[in-house]
Every structure is written in structure tokens, then in C-alpha cells.
Amino acid sequence: MAWTVDFYEEEDGSAPVEGFLAELPKKHRAKALAIVRLLEEAGPTLPFPYSSQVRGKIRELRTQQGKDRIRILYFADKERHFILLHAFIKRTGKLSQKDIQIAERRMKKHEQKTGNTAGRKLKARGAMKQRRFPKGVSNVKVDEEGNVTVQWIGEWGEGRMWGKVGEPVSFEGRALCGPLQVLPKQTEQIGDFPIEVKHQCERQDECVARELLDELEVAEGVSWVQ
Q1: Local confidence band at 149 (pLDDT 50, 70, 90 cut-offs)
Q2: Chain segment 211-222, per-residue pLDDT in tens
Q3: Which residues pair with 184 in a beta bridge?
Q4: Which helix (H) or strand (E) holds 35?
Q5: Looking at the predicted structure, is the pLDDT value of residue 224 above 60?
Q6: Which domain holds residue 11?
Q7: Are residues 77 and 163 located together in one domain of the fold?
């Protein structure tokens, strides 16, 4: 049985982590959703630095966009669900007791509502609605060294992405207008672009390669290669 990821819900039906993600800037939200998808695919084997122990059953998902360190506190229930409890931008060296206590309080409420401590099935409504994250990546694989491989489908193309979280991404696939490849370059030349793009456009009047690069978050700092 596969693991699933769900939002913790308050009694009024609101989901704090879902609200946090919705308010993030586009690039921050993409990073946060990517790390959640890794958790869904890798399950309890998701390694550090993507996941780490906090206290008791509480763990944290870890990612970063620019200088902002994004943290999502969660726990695993007995029905093979990861419940996302609390999310925030980390501003201090250590997690604050306030943030940990918020997660622990929500975990306790979730277990009381669902009867999860007794090992019963999750209720379909009330304490938890089955919410899923937007489609876009699938077949995520993470090895022991933290290398990630992802089958990716976007608005402007699809293909395979690989690399390490937080480092330049490699991509091989198709934009809607033709084959496209993105590879980081090893360069020490000042002013040289670190990303190399190869694209064979089959629809010159309707090229969407730049839109696909924007989806992949590599639209800046690239050099085009014939």
C-alpha cells in the first residue's frame, strides 16, 4: 500500500498548510510542492536534508528558495498517511518551541477526531477530506546520495528532470513545439551563463520554449546552443 499526503484540517474545514502554500510566491510554492511530492513518493525513506526528525512523531520537510528556508511539520499516522500539520518560513537557527507546539497540538486533535490512536480507518469527512496535490510530477526517485529523478508534465511540455534539490536542474524532453534539453555547464569563465539549452523548434511561429524554461525555473542565465 502506497503512502499518501494529506492536509490537517481544523473543525471549520480550513487547512492551515494549504493556506500557507496558496499564499507563497510562485517559485517558493513550486519548491514546497516538490518536496511534498518527494515525501509522497519516497515515504518514510526520504532522507536528510529533505526530511529530519523534530520531536516525538513530528518530522519536518526542508527546502529553500533564495534566503527563505521553508519548513513543513508533519507526522505519519497508522493508516500510512502523512499529515501536514504546520508550515512557515524559518527565520532562526533552531525551530521555535511555538512552531513545534502548534504541530503537536494539531497532531493530537487529528488523532482524537479520527480515532487514529486506536488504529481505526480515517473518516471520509469531518476530521479529514482526502485532498491531493496538483499533478505535474510523477515517478519520483531519490537515491542514498540525494539525487532526484522526476518524470514531469507541465503546461508547455514534458520530460525527465534530474539533479539535486537546490542545484541547477537537468531536463530532457519536449516542449509543445519540439525537443528541448537543459544541462548545467561546468565553467569558471566570469560572465558565462551556467545553463545550456538545446532546442529544435518545429513551430517557429509558435515557439513556447521560453515558457517551458520558465516552468522549469531556468528562464534566466541560459545560453542557447544550436
Answers
A1: confident
A2: 778 777 665 566
A3: 195
A4: helix 26-42
A5: yes
A6: 4-118
A7: no
124 within domain boundaries: no
Are 157 and 174 a contacting pair, CB within 8 Å? Answer: yes
Residue 125 is assigned to a structural domain of this protein? no
Same domain, 23 and 105: yes
Position 101 scores a pLDDT of 96
Question: Dihedral through CA 135, CA 124, CA 81, CA 59, nearest 10?
Answer: 100
Helix (H, G, I), strand (E, B) or coil at 116: helix
| pLDDT for residue 118 | 35
Exposure string of 106-129, with b = 16+ CB inside 10 Å and e = fewer, is: bbebbbebbebeeeeebeeeebbe
Specify whether the CB–CB gap between 200 and 181 falls below 8 A.
no
State pLDDT tens for residues 160-212. Answer: 888 776 566 688 888 888 898 888 765 444 444 467 888 888 876 778 888 77
Q: Say how far residue 98 (Cα) sits from the centre of its chain.
A: 24
Distance CA 31, CA 34 (A): 5
- What's the sign of the alpha-carbon dihedral 4, 1, 46, 163? negative
Residues 6+ apart with CB under 8 A from 95: 54, 60, 71
Q: Which residue has the cell 480507518?
A: 121
Q: At what angle do helices 16-23 and 26-42 cross, to 10 degrees?
A: 140
